[in-house]
Automatic annotation (TrEMBL):
<protein>
    <submittedName>
        <fullName>Putative immunoglobulin i-set domain protein</fullName>
    </submittedName>
</protein>
<dbReference type="InterPro" id="IPR013783">
    <property type="entry name" value="Ig-like_fold"/>
</dbReference>
<dbReference type="GO" id="GO:0007155">
    <property type="term" value="P:cell adhesion"/>
</dbReference>
<dbReference type="InterPro" id="IPR007110">
    <property type="entry name" value="Ig-like_dom"/>
</dbReference>
<feature type="disulfide bond">
    <location>
        <begin position="113"/>
        <end position="130"/>
    </location>
</feature>
<keyword id="KW-0472">Membrane</keyword>
<dbReference type="InterPro" id="IPR013098">
    <property type="entry name" value="Ig_I-set"/>
</dbReference>
<dbReference type="Pfam" id="PF07679">
    <property type="entry name" value="I-set"/>
</dbReference>
<dbReference type="GO" id="GO:0004672">
    <property type="term" value="F:protein kinase activity"/>
</dbReference>
<feature type="domain" description="Ig-like">
    <location>
        <begin position="2"/>
        <end position="91"/>
    </location>
</feature>
<dbReference type="GO" id="GO:0016020">
    <property type="term" value="C:membrane"/>
</dbReference>
<feature type="domain" description="EGF-like">
    <location>
        <begin position="100"/>
        <end position="142"/>
    </location>
</feature>
<keyword id="KW-1133">Transmembrane helix</keyword>
<keyword id="KW-1015">Disulfide bond</keyword>
<dbReference type="InterPro" id="IPR036179">
    <property type="entry name" value="Ig-like_dom_sf"/>
</dbReference>
<dbReference type="InterPro" id="IPR000742">
    <property type="entry name" value="EGF"/>
</dbReference>
<keyword id="KW-0245">EGF-like domain</keyword>
Length: 169
């Protein structure tokens, strides 16, 4: 006999992130694992997915998850003693709060956000906004986050180009 002990349950995932789905099985002899997305074998699209197979588990990796990756994923396990495979499914969804962000539509988008922030355009309100790196905050990531005391101050030799009379780090 064979059974599926565990299949990863994923909360909504941010677009562009790496996703690992893990299927752990048990049985004698060890079952063969096959992955499906929305009822179709994933083998047909090997360029989109990476598989790792071990004796009692398999890992399905999506390097950069996108809208087309949303759906029902199924782990199917079968060994010689089973007439029918055993299956377990999970749902993969994108994080909706980040789906309305686009790249900045105007030139100079790389200079709009300060301190390494990423410029995004929120289409719902038709305004640019910044995703700040850890340790920075503000509309344009212009302020050091006071709750992060480990942020250090840079001197001009450590910084890049001159920016509005100061140096841009």
């Amino acid at each position: 006999s064979a059974s599926i002990e565990f299949l990863t349950e994923k909360p909504p995932v941010r677009e562009g992130k790496k996703v690992r789905l893990i299927c752990r099985v048990k049985g004698q002899p060890p079952p063969k694992i096959t992955w499906y997305k929305d009822g179709e074998s994933i083998k047909r699209n090997r360029t989109r997915y990476t598989f790792s197979y071990f004796k009692r588990r398999s890992i399905l990796i999506i390097e950069s998850v996108g809208k087309n990756d949303e759906g029902q994923y199924e782990c199917s396990a079968k060994n010689k003693l089973l007439e029918k495979p055993v299956n377990k499914t999970m749902s993969l969804r994108l994080d909706n709060q980040h789906q309305n962000w686009d790249n900045c539509p105007f030139s100079g988008g790389t200079e709009y956000c300060l301190n390494g922030g990423t410029c995004r355009y929120f289409s719902a309100v038709k305004e640019p906004a910044c995703q700040c790196l850890e340790g920075f905050m503000g509309n344009r990531c212009e302020t050091k986050n006071p709750t992060n005391p480990q942020m250090s101050t840079y001197n001009k030799e450590q910084c890049g180009k001159k920016y509005y009379g100061g140096y841009y780090c």
